[in-house]
Sequence to fold (308 residues):
Amino acid sequence: MDELIRTERLTKCYGNSVVVQDVSLSVKKGEIYGFLGLNGAGKTTTIRTLLGMIKPTSGEVLLFGERLRGRGDRLWNRVGYMVEMPAAYPGFTVRENLRLFARLRGLAQPESVEAVMEKLKLRAYADTKAKHLSLGNMQKLGLAKALMHNPEILILDEPTNALDPAGIVEIRELLISLAEQQGITVFISSHILEEIAKMATRIGIIHRGVLLQEITAKEFGNIRQKRLYIGVGGEQEQALHLLESKGYQVRLGRAGCLELPDERAVRNPERIAKLLTDAHLPLSQLLVEEEELEAYFLKAIGAKEELG
Fold:
C-alpha cells in the first residue's frame, strides 16, 4: 500500500459555517506532508477528522486504503498522534505517565518506556511530575506517547510549539529519520513555515477551509523566485545602465543594491561579476537569494483573496 492517507472531498460544517470544504489530499508511505495554513484555516479540524475525533459533514477519510467510518478502532494501533497541547496526568512523573499509556496500548514494560524516553531525550526528566515540566518538555512527552507503539502513520498538530531552537532541531531530525529510515508517514501542521520547508517532502496549503495547492519539495525549489543581489559601492547608476545594455532585467533594490530577477544572472552570477570588474566597477556583494516558504505561502493565499 503506497498511499496511507487519503481524503475525498472532505467537508465539515458547524451550522451555516463551512470550516473545511471539499478537501482532497493524499499522503504516501514515508512522506513528510507539511500542512500549512493560518489560524482558523481548517488545519486542526482536518486533523481531528483524519483521526475520527469528529465526523465529517460529507466526504471520506481513508487510512491504509480503508474507509475510516466504522473501522477506526482497528486502525488506531497503526497510528500515532498529537493534537494541540498534549494531555498528561499532572501528579504522575514522566515515567509513570508513559507506563500508564504503555499499559493502555498493551505494550511491553519497561522496554518501550525506556526506549522512547531515550529517543526524545526525556530520561533526565523521568522522575519529574508532569505538572513541573516546561511547555517544551510537555510537548516532548506528548510526542513520546505518540511514538511509543512504533506507528506506521504519525499525525502531529503543531509539534514544535513551545520548543526552544535546539528542541526544534531535535524534533526535525527525529521526524526526518523516522520517515527516511523507518518509512513512517508523517502528517504535520505547523505555523513555523521555514521549519516545514526544511523537513517536508510535500506541502499542502489550506486557506479558509479550501486546499489551495499541493506541491512537492522539488517543485517548490523550482518555482520559488530567485534573485541576484549586487553591491557596487556608489556606482549603482553606471552598473545598472551597463547591465541593462547587456539585456539583463535589473532594478535598484534594498540598501542600494542592484536586484536581478533575471534567470540568466541567477544561474551564472560569475558572468555578472566579470562584466562589472571588466568595467572597473567595485564589486562589494554578490548574493543569490531564494524566495522563502513564508513569502510563497502569503503570495498563494493573497492570490486566493484577490479572486474572492
